[in-house]
Amino acid sequence: PNETTLAWLHHTYPALPPAERPLECTLRPGEVLYFPGRWWHATLNLDTSVFISTFLG
Q1: Where is the JmjC domain positioned along the sequence (predicted)?
Q2: pTM, to two decimals
Q3: What pLDDT digit, counting tens, does each position of 5-17 carry?
Q4: What is the DSSP letter of 8?
Q5: Number of domains in the chain
Q6: How far is Cα 29 from Cα 48, in angstroms, rounded to an integer?
Q7: Domain limits for position 43
Q8: In angstroms, rounded to a whole number, what is the distance separating the alpha carbons of residues 20 and 47?
């Protein structure tokens, strides 16, 4: 909670057992990823990107 996604990826992620590692995906241009409500997530942009977030309900 007190570090950036990039810092977490470098420091914490390598120490996690494989069964406890989060799901990962890489989106390509034109693709969209939907997160259900209350779904914990983090993002790491590898290049210039656009991010849109909205809460429905």
Answers
A1: 1-57
A2: 0.59
A3: 889 999 999 999 9
A4: H
A5: 1
A6: 11
A7: 1-57
A8: 27
For tokens 């390509």, name the residue. Answer: 28
Q: State how far the alpha carbon of 31 is from the alpha carbons of 7, 21, 27, 40, 41, in Å.
A: 26, 23, 6, 20, 17
**Contact, 8 vs 42, CB < 8 A?**
yes
Q: What is the distance between the alpha carbons of residues 2 and 53, in angstroms, rounded to a whole number?
A: 22
Q: Which two tokens stand for residue 41?
A: 């997530």
Please provide the DSSP assignment of 30-44 as one string. T------TT------
**Length reported for the chain:** 57
Half-sphere exposure of 13 (CA within 13 A, CB side): 12
Contact 44, 4 (CB under 8 A): no
Question: Rounded to the nearest 5°, which phi and psi values hold at 10?
Answer: -80, -35
